Amino acid sequence: MTFSEENYLKTIYHLTTASDSEVSTNAIAEKMETKASSVTDMLKKLADKGLVNYKKYQGVSLTEEGKLAAKMIVRKHRLWEVFLVEKLGFSWDEVHDIAEQLEHIKSEKLINKLDDFLDNPTEDPHGDPIPDREGRIVKIEKQLLSELSENQFGICVGVKDTSSEFLKYLDKQEIALGSKIEFLSKESFDLSLRIKVNGKELTISNKIASNLFVKLV
């Protein structure tokens, strides 16, 4: 596959995972910031290769072969993110763009050795699951911080928004994976939250809370 074909497969995979249904040409075009006509041309190529199910005006879904191929691209991306953070000292807001380049490396042997070198991690630096070499994914039990009730405790296990701006904001607030968060109260006016993170109280917006995944403890 070309880099472009791989990027399309990964995009369709992420969109179908989020919606659990077929995705439209327009949704793919919006995500990839390209024209719908360009998406249609690519979907026809991917369909010819047996990687997607595509019928005009009816949306698109991945075939089993396409889903496995997409998972392998995601696997490479997330393993490289772990490597960059754990072994090279990059911060979690820096690694996405670099991993976007490294995910296109073709060597399966290299990726499997990288996986073993990192002790076979199941999550990337943002808390997203890493498919194993067969494409299996360990499900992470989590919910959004905004969904907690007062006086509940959670451990930060992931982020919904992986943008550099959001991750830098979390760094300023000293919120990271593994941080213990207590839900203290919610303001009815703007739905902002009063929380305690690692013993320190602070107020965050509902938008922030709606982009933080926690596991109840």
Automatic annotation (TrEMBL):
GO terms for molecular function: DNA binding; DNA-binding transcription factor activity; protein dimerization activity; transition metal ion binding. InterPro entries: DtxR_MntR_Metal-Reg, Fe-transptr_FeoA-like, Fe_dep_repressor, Fe_dep_repressor_sf, FeoA_core_dom, HTH_DTXR, Iron_dep_repressor, WH-like_DNA-bd_sf. SMART domains: FeoA, HTH_DTXR. Signal peptide: none annotated. Residues 1-63 form the HTH dtxR-type domain. The keyword Protease does not apply. The keyword Transcription regulation applies. Keywords: DNA-binding, Transcription, Transcription regulation. Gene3D superfamilies: 2.30.30.90, Iron dependent repressor, metal binding and dimerisation domain, Winged helix-like DNA-binding domain superfamily/Winged helix DNA-binding domain. It holds the Pfam family Fe_dep_repress. In the presence of manganese, represses expression of mntH and mntS. Up-regulates expression of mntP. Belongs to the DtxR/MntR family. This is Transcriptional regulator MntR. It comes from Flavobacterium microcysteis. The lineage of its organism: Bacteria, Pseudomonadati, Bacteroidota, Flavobacteriia, Flavobacteriales.
